[in-house]
Structure formats: C-alpha cells, structure tokens
Amino acid sequence: MTDQDTGLLELEVGNVANGGFCVARHEGRVVFVRHALPGERVRARVTDTTRNFLRADAVEIIEASPDRVVPPCPFAGPGRCGGCDWQHASLPAQRALKAAVVEEQLQRLAGITRTVVVEEVPYPVDSEVVPPPGLGWRTRVQFAVSGGAVGLRRHRSHDIEPVDECLIAHPGVELMGIERKRWPGASGVEGIVSATTGDRLVVLRGRDRRKIRVPRLDVPVRLVRGKPEPGANLPYVRESVSGRLFQVSGSGFWQVHPGAAQLLADAVVAALEPKPGDIALDLYCGVGLFAGVLADRIGADGLVVGIESDGQAVRDARFNLRDLPNVSIERGPVEEVVADLEFGRADSSSRTQNKRGGTGHQGGIHVRRADLVVLDPPRTGAGREVVDHIARLAGRKIAYVSCDPATLARDLSYFGEKGWTLETLRAFDAFPMTQHVELLATLVKG
After folding, report:
1. 196 DSSP assignment
2. What is the C-alpha separation between 119 and 430, in angstroms, rounded?
3. Does residue 288 sit in helix, strand or coil?
4. Gap between the Cα atoms of 440 and 429, Å rounded
5. Confidence (pLDDT) at 3
6. Parallel, antiparallel, or unpaired for β 279-283 and 303-308?
7. CA 413 to the chain's CA centroid
8. Which residue stretches of 79-212 are H helix?
9. Can you list the alpha helix ranges (DSSP code H) found in 125-253?
10. How much is the pTM?
11. What is the distance between the alpha carbons of residues 346 and 363, in angstroms, rounded to a whole number?
12. How far, in whole angstroms, is CA 409 from its chain's centroid?
C-alpha cells in the first residue's frame, strides 16, 4: 500500500536477493528494498523505477526483525554511504543472508541444491590492533574526492558522502588520516596498508596528477600517481603468506581482509591435494599467490603455470616467485593463452610453451593435461570460452575462487555440461557489513 501523506510504500519484506536487497511487492510489481531485513514491515522511499521493478530504501521500520541492530557507522543508512549493505543486521544474520543468496543462485542458475554455511574469516591473532568484530578489515580503501574534500560514493550514485572515518577500513589505513585532509586536484585517493608487514601506500587519481596538492599525512607513506606505466618500478606493499613475501605494486589486486589471503591459500591447497610432480595451472594468477603455495607442494619435478593479463601483476609475480624454478608466468588474456598452451615433461625437468613467447624449462615428452587447475577470475567470472579450455586441460581437480555467486553459478553450469561436478563448496565472510562473499568451489570429473 502507499501512504498518501508521505508518498512512501508500506511493504512486507520477503527473502534476500543478490545485491544487498530484499524482495517485496507493491501492486504486483517487484520492489528491491535496501536497509530492510526479511520478515520486516517497513515504509520505503522509491529511488528508481524501471519497466519491470522498483528500487527503494526502507526509511521507517514498522515491525523489526530480531536480527536488526543499530548500524555502528554514522554514515550508513538510506541515501548515505553505499559502501556497506548490511550494517543494520547482526553478523550471524549477515552470514545467513549471504548463504541464502549463494544457495538461491546455485539452484536457479546451475540447478545445484547445496546447503551453504558462510565461515568467519578470523583476524590475524598477531595483529597489533584487533578491531571489533566485522569492522577494521578493509586494507584497501578507494576514497572519492570532490573540491578537495574526501568521501565515499553513495549507492548507485556519483554523489559523494563526506566522511571523517570509515569503520570498515583497517586501522593502518585510518592512521594515514586521508579523510581528514584536503586533496585539491585529485578525483580519487586510495589508501593501502599491508596487515602483515605494515607497508603503507597512497595512490592518487586526477585529470592532471601533476597538479594534485598532497597534504602532509599523519604517518609516512609512499605515493603513486595514477596507473602504473609499463616497466615502471613503482612503490609497492609487501604481503606475507605461508612464509613468503609477495610484492604488490600500486593498486594491484590483493585480498582486502587481513586474514583472507592465508585462509584462501590454505583452502585451495586442501581442496586440490597437490602431489609431488603434479602439473598445475593458476589462471588469473595476479601476483602469484596460489602459484607460490602450489609450487611448494608439487616440488622440483612438478610445474606450475600462472597466466595473467595485467602487465604490472606479471612483473610482480615473476619477481615474487623468482626463486622457484618450477614456476612459469605467462602474460596475456587467459582465453588466448590457454588456447595454445602445451606442456612437456622429461625426467626432472618440465616446460611450457605458447605462441606468445612464454618461458619455462626445456623438457621433452608432451602431455595433454594439467593435473590441477585453480582460477580466481574477476567478478564477471570465467565465461564459457575459458570453461571449455579448462575442461579440456584439467585432469584431476579444479578449484574455482569467486567473489560473485551469480557468475560462479553460471560457470558451474558450463562445467556441468562438460562432465565436471561440484565436489565441495566453501563460503567465507571476507567482506563483513557488505553483500559480498568469497567462494571456493572444488570440481571433479564425472
């Protein structure tokens, strides 16, 4: 029903939907409602209208869910910062909502019925400061700038919500004082900290980065102006996983939760069960996290081939894994490199070759398959072409790391068409207070 005096919709809120919404209906039309929880009765303000559905923000809670809590952040709420989706829900409720989304996407897009439990990602026990549960985890924060003032984008908007503190930002990011400074000439400022080494970095963006006036920050940091140029030796942060240091230059990809990289590395190894002498593929390998931990397990008689399209990430990966003769890092789009990838093995030496000039170790007898494959694609997923190549190359197990339930479910359906089945699925709450969840699917043949 519609409140004629206020122009608000009174809604009975139904199930959670992918994207940080819950589903309601008004006069037969679907309404995707933010800032609500399943089972609540709310008054909501329409924020967007399409032919098929409405979007709305719950601005008044008539009947509250027992899972509702007061948002810890003063900038959260209808029309405010869009960085968090579930600050109004308890942490156990957030994980249950994410599990429900994953289950629904698997069933709807892949025809897979699976009970999902979203696991907590522990904060490292050796951290100097351990924030309250669900807060202080984001080691990489992109701030928007308007007129020199810093803030965060509002939901589905270019408008900026000015903030003086982000509660999900890691304490090391907050120590820089980015939000409390002015940044004339900048359009964006990214604060980056390594939770394992304490390295700090600020990446600046702007139409003319030479004209950005950099304020004096509260702690020493290194600065990067804009996107890395090919061949540039840029400042970086060092991250430690399984006793190995990984250099990550500029805004390069790394897991943002302090405990996520180690947890995922251990989970991938446990899922794939690598054996000495195995051949493994690490697709979308970034700076070499999974390639590094797998190489240690397969030993000198095995081979790990990492594939990555980003030039700076490739340079970092080759540097990070330079002491591992059983690792080869190939640069190029995954769908192109895997199309012409061949493996060879002779006694204790192995090699990879591809038409793009990849390097490896000289060997002899060609083998057609990799024993193991791990892939960690962007949010858009791998897609049918890459799945077809993986299905052709993979021999024993596939580990698929994903941050998007919908694209993972879609790709699992493609794998199913090729005879691969979902063996196990783990879900991790690597992004508390938000809709996002990290997933690890393990697939086997038949």
Report:
1. T
2. 9
3. coil
4. 12
5. 62
6. parallel
7. 21
8. 91-105, 171-174
9. 171-174
10. 0.93
11. 5
12. 16
Q: What is the widest separation between alpha-carbon atoms in the chain?
A: 81
Q: Please tell me the predicted confidence (pLDDT) of residue 234.
A: 76
Positive or negative, the CA dihedral 332, 335, 341, 343 is: positive
- Contact between 416 and 110 under an 8 Å Cβ cutoff? The reply is yes
Q: Lowest-pLDDT range, 351-355, 371-375, 409-413, 422-426?
A: 351-355
Q: Is the pLDDT of residue 6 over 70?
A: no
Nearest to 430 by CA among 118, 47, 5: 118
Q: Cα dihedral angle (52, 58, 59, 62), rounded to 10 degrees? A: 120
- Do 416 and 390 meet the contact criterion of CB atoms below 8 Å apart? no
The helix/strand/coil state of 260 is helix
Q: What is the C-alpha separation between 265 and 270, in angstroms, rounded?
A: 9
Q: What b/e sequence results for 89-113 when a residue is b if at least 16 CB atoms lie within 10 Å of its CB, and e otherwise?
A: bbbebbbbbbbbbbbbbbeebbebe
Active site amino acids: 403
The rounded distance, in Å, linking the Cα atoms of 204 and 250 is 10
Beta bridge partners of 327: 304
CB 59 within 8 A of CB 40: no
Beta bridge partners of 44: 9, 58
Instruction: Dig out the tokens for 240 from the structure.
Output: 């430690």
What is the β-pairing status of strands 365-367 and 349-353?
unpaired
Amino acid identity of 12? E
pLDDT bracket for residue 349 (50, 70, 90):
very low
Q: For residue range 169-211, list pLDDT tens digits in order.
A: 999 999 999 999 999 999 999 999 999 999 999 999 998 888 8
Q: Is 233 helix (H, G, I), strand (E, B) or coil?
A: coil
Say how far apart CA 95 and CA 433 lie, in whole Å.
10
Strands (E), 128-199: 140-146, 149-153, 160-162, 188-193
Angle between helix axes 289-298 and 260-272 (nearest 10 degrees) is 40
Q: Token pair for residue 446? A: 């038949």
Tokens of 88: 């109004």
Cα 377–Cα 277–Cα 442 angle in degrees, nearest 5: 35
